Amino acid sequence: MAKDAAVEEFAGLVRALKTRDGRSYEALGRRLNVSASTLHRYCSGATVPEDFAVVDRLARLCGADEEERRALEAAWTRADGARRPPAPEPGAEPTSAPEPVPVPVAAPEPELDPVHARVPGLPSERRRRRWGWVGVVGGALAVVGAVTLGAVLLPGKTGERVAEPPAPLTWTVASHIWKNGCGHTYLVERTPPPPPEAADARSWATAQGAVDGGETLVRVSVQGKGAAAVVLQALHVRVVERGAPLPWAAYRTDDGCGGAVTPRRFEVDLDRPRPVARALDGYDASGQEGRTIPAVSFPYAVTAAEPEELRVSARTAGCDCRWYLELEWSAEGRSGTVRIGDEDGQPFRTSGVGRGPVYGYDSVGRAWITGRESGQGG
Questions:
Q1: Per the count of CB atoms within 10 A, which of 59, 81, 96, 190 is most buried?
Q2: 3-state secondary structure of 298
Q3: Domain interval for residue 23
Q4: Measuring CA to CA, which residue among 314, 313, 310 is closest to residue 327?
Q5: Mean predicted confidence (pLDDT) in 166-183
Q6: CATH number of the domain bearing residue 9
Q7: Residue 54 near residue 34, CB atoms below 8 Å
Q8: Containing H/E element for 249?
Q9: Which of 15, 49, 82 is the last residue in one of the domains?
Q10: Using CA atoms, how far apart are residues 196 and 201, in angstroms rounded to an integer?
Q11: Number of domains composing the chain
Q12: Is 134 a domain residue?
């Protein structure tokens, strides 16, 4: 395939993705952490990206399926190969490097006069050199110490440290989320009152001292503080405490409803020694034809005008775990990590469902009943 044809084929596929998505170059560029002009050059064929990763993020962002992404990668490979300079022809004379210019060697220093070497109180050459190096090293350490001290102390205020500037992003947390808005399993030490509506789940669970049973669903909304993009680099999970699953009874508020949309999310297995957040696609079955919702792919850019919602499903069968999320970010030459906990700042808490009884709520009899009492076994 000719060079221009390979690049045009790739650019055409990128243009098709952009057109199908419908967002502007600026909006897509902020999501991809590239400028609008750079994205325009990709679409016009003026530039081929150095790496396929940015193209793959664009494809996922625009809803491309696996087959489309494979075709796009093949086109990028051809275009990338076409833009590179040709290899030198076999048999071509290699360009000889210029011969090194000889460097004159300094004459050795004259030895000390033996008479002076024996004069009492006069330091020998070795001692003079040693003390000379001590002076140089001491001076360097003094400079480093002064610079370090100036970096951590405010001028004119001895002993006061300069505070690190705050992270350029904000976030809100909702941790009392019911699956599809329908229900949830709580572990409670004593028989609780009737289950609440989903909107009142937090106050109900707090009043009962309830703990998420088997799974915690978290929704984190992240956005920048200004127009500048903040790039979300990675999402980590840190378990800070492990114990045996609580022996309390489980109470299910599920009323059997279901939802047509499974949101994209991160799944976490808290029973692993080092849990990781795995990005998974979502699925929208509300239309005539189902549609895959591409998983969040890091790095991912947010601004004050364009926030992002991260959903996390953390599960356990074998522990009473307290854990945090840690979100890595970078922006304008800075980088850092923010720790995200429950709505009150404490770690999230999830316990496996033990061998205690499992109750569901009988809305007719207005009472909690076990599966055995309802005739369903258990």
A1: 59
A2: coil
A3: 3-82
A4: 310
A5: 88
A6: 1.10.260
A7: yes
A8: strand 249-252
A9: 82
A10: 6
A11: 2
A12: no
